């Protein structure tokens, strides 16, 4: 895991980055590795990949962060990237794998109300995707919106959102 993280830091080659991110993402699916990756500063390395030029690299980084977000301690570190994830979802092509990867991460990060306030400005985006997206996109957006709607503090933002 340490070598994968170092490889991500050392290369600008999108093909190598993609392969390293896929391997890291698969490793992150195991709870024992989630703490190790966090302790190796892997979360900040992955967060830095969200501004990479290649959409495939961003997508793979989002997938890895999604697997890592199943851990509460990891969520505390990942939450700093929520607004960047929202920007990636907005700028991604409609119904793209990149957009879906971002929405999946936002779904996990919105399970508790701890970080809902960071998604308020993206509510109009979610509603737009709900009306314009394919069924896969709509289902993922609905998961985020259901999580947000479970928080009474979000009610006015959801009801007042301009679509």
UniProtKB/TrEMBL annotation:
Gene3D superfamilies: Leucine-rich Repeat Variant. Keywords: Membrane, Mitochondrion, Mitochondrion outer membrane, Transmembrane, Transmembrane helix. Its main location: mitochondrion. GO terms for cellular component: mitochondrial outer membrane. SUPFAM superfamilies: ARM repeat (SSF48371). It is a single-pass membrane protein. InterPro entries: ARM-like (IPR011989), ARM-rpt_dom (IPR006911), ARM-type_fold (IPR016024), Armcx_regulator (IPR051303). Residues 1-163 form the Armadillo repeat-containing domain. Pfam families: Arm_2. It is found in: Mitochondrion outer membrane. PANTHER family: ARMADILLO REPEAT CONTAINING 10 (PTHR15712:SF23), ARMADILLO REPEAT CONTAINING PROTEIN (PTHR15712). This is ARM10 protein. It comes from Zapornia atra.
């Amino acid at each position: 895991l340490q070598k994968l993280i170092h490889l991500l830091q050392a290369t600008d080659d999108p093909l190598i980055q993609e392969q390293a991110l896929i391997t890291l993402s698969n490793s992150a699916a195991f709870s024992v590795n989630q703490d190790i990756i966090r302790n190796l500063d892997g979360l900040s390395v992955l967060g830095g990949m969200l501004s990479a030029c290649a959409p495939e690299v961003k997508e793979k980084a989002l997938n890895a962060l999604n697997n890592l977000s199943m851990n509460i301690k990891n969520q505390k570190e990942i939450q700093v990237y929520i607004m960047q994830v929202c920007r990636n979802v907005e700028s991604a092509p409609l119904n793209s794998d990149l957009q879906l990867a971002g929405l999946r991460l936002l779904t996990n990060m919105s399970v508790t109300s701890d970080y809902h306030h960071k998604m308020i400005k993206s509510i109009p985006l979610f509603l737009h995707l709900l009306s314009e997206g394919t069924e896969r996109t709509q289902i993922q957006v609905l998961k985020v919106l259901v999580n947000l709607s479970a928080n009474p503090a979000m009610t006015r933002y959801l009801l007042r959102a301009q679509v």
